[in-house]
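ok so for the tutorial part 2 we go from a plain amino acid sequence to predicted structure tokens. step 1 is just haveing the sequence, like this:
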Amino acid sequence: MLVVEDEPVILIDISEQLRDAGFDVLEASNADQAIVHLKNNPAIRLVFTDIDMPGSMDGLKLAAAVRDRWPPVKIIITSGRHKMLDGELPEGCLFASKPYAHADIFASMNRLLGISSTI
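step 2 — the prediction. this is what the tokens look like for a chain of 119 residues:
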């Protein structure tokens, strides 16, 4: 799993929570780093990304790029500033508003990855 978040405290928090829940986690603080991880790690099955990030693209553009280049990868997009409707997201993406409950994020990840047990 790849977590893309430019706020260090949030990145550390969600990454640690996911590791504690048994997920293998890679971290990126912007979309450019995320693309490098995706190119170098074909086992990535899910990207969890914030919308607002510095760099060459925001989280929505990153999600669209992932959808185009790595179609099997599942995507959850999050934001504390934006509210997204299903029609505004790249196909197959889920949206989670900040602040989010870790349990809700884990349940969405499990559902997307086809994991039946709850974390």
